[in-house]
Write a structure and sequence with these properties.
The chain has 318 residues and is α/β, with parallel strands linked by helices. It is built from 13 helices and ten strands. An eight-stranded mixed β-sheet has the order 3-4-2-1-5-6-10-9, sandwiched between helices.
Amino acid sequence: MRDIIFLRLKDITRFLRANLSFFFNKKENFYSSLDLQILEEINKYHSKLLLTKKYKLNTHNAFSKKVLKLIINKNLLNFLQLGYIQQMFFIHNRFFIIYELIKLVNHKKWKLWKKLIKENDIGNPVRFFLYPYTSGNKIHQVNHLKEFNSFSKIDLSEHINVVEFGGGYGNMASIFSKINRRINYIIFDTQEVGMLQYYYLKKCKLDVGFGIKNKNKIKLIYNIKDLRKVVKNFKNNQNNLFISNWSISEVPLKFRDEFNFIFKKFNYQIFSFQSKFEKINNLKYFNNLYSIYKLKKRRSIIYEMSGKKENFYLFSSK
């Protein structure tokens, strides 16, 4: 009972924070002809969908069902205003975002960061109440890149291949499309979330497709065997980047073991994670990974995020 009350209070506070930006949000009232075409493409793909619980904890099993229902009912207008979507994928009006925005503005690469945080109207994202040009989510994700860029000392446009484990609704992929339109970007995620990503990225007018057989710049993959095939073809001397923002830290430990092959292949790696998820001690897991990297002479760092207690970064490079 106490947990139910706590969750309802969280939903209420999230709703109130979102409404700080009420006057800046742009509600979607109807589907365009392009939207309807995209929805038809998704529904053709949906007929082949096999909903699996193999790689999910309880939180994501429940979430997957809700996302799938959105897809089936073609109910994607204003999807970024939905509470459960925001809870999993979207950070909006939070105080620590103000601090992150100030850091971006005062950084020597502010011209780049300003370009990357510019928000669009797809899904009716909650605009940041102090700077409606953007959203809290854009600021937060671009701040990840700023933090990593300070660590890696490599220009973000130099990354040839990017693999993102768990791509949210496609926001990070859309950010990288502004950095380098020619980049080879791969999102590994569940099929149902992949359909949401397809909808968002198509509406961004980006070159996106399902599976490894297509030649699209952004590939949506849900099969680990396919991911192995793709990663195997990456050259070791390329600037390959692996991104996992909270996603690895939210899957079962057994599946993380299956994913160990990818940790060895990528010269550059970004992890963000919470100290604990359900019953898993993530701080222990990532501290162990950090120790392994140090033994392998990889340059690595692990530290707590400013303003976001019990959430951490692990950055690594060869």
